[in-house]
Amino acid sequence: MNRARFLVAVLAASLASACLQPAQAEAVVSAPAAAVPAKEGKGLKTAVFAGGCYWGMEAVFSHVKGVSSVVSGFEGGKRSDAQYETVSTGTTGHAEAVRITYDPAVVRYDQLLQVFFGVASDPTELNRQGPDTGTQYRNAIVPQSPEQARVTGEYLAQLRKLNLWKRPIVTAIEPDRGFFAAEAYHQDFMLKNPDHAYIRYWDVPKVAALKRVFPGLWKADFTRG
User: Fold this and answer.
1) What CATH number matches the domain at 3-213, 3.30.1060.10, 3.40.50.720, 3.40.50.150, 1.10.10.10?
2) CB neighbours of 160 closer than 8 A, spacing ≥ 6?
3) Which of 4, 41, 149, 161 has most Cβ atoms within 10 angstroms of its Cβ?
């Protein structure tokens, strides 16, 4: 299912209800601190995560302390195919993703991984997230440095031993083939469209879960991309 079909279903359901109630954030888990913390040095760094619809991913990470920018876009395919309508066909190799700029002196990369696995996405869903299906909604991490690759591998191994989810983790570690920003109307989407039905059903609960599960990482202000 893509977002357009989901909205049709939501609108139909709303005819029978006085108001739309937010859904529960799927698969919220209090992901543990990493046994192997990241050591990235000084200066701003970037991280690239794919975890379903980038509206929700952007919304969650835009409320994390130490994050100075979150851009919605695509990873895994060619620049020439990096448009929303084309990617939505599921034939380009792209995944919807976010590029996060952060200060490791405030929030470490391994802490971003905690948020990714704990509240931003469901790592057990293969080629889907929530109502959205297709390879473009796959769950993946794209390390931007050898240190990020090391920490990601160690953290995935740590989580798999804990069996925190009812199903196996399917999150992939993918090579960096380039990140391409999505169209302007996709950027800062939750900030600009707080009453959008998809946002209210799927993404508001994720942001609430971030505040509840990781209060030490939470910031009230939305970081614009």
Assistant:
1) 3.30.1060.10
2) 168, 169
3) 149
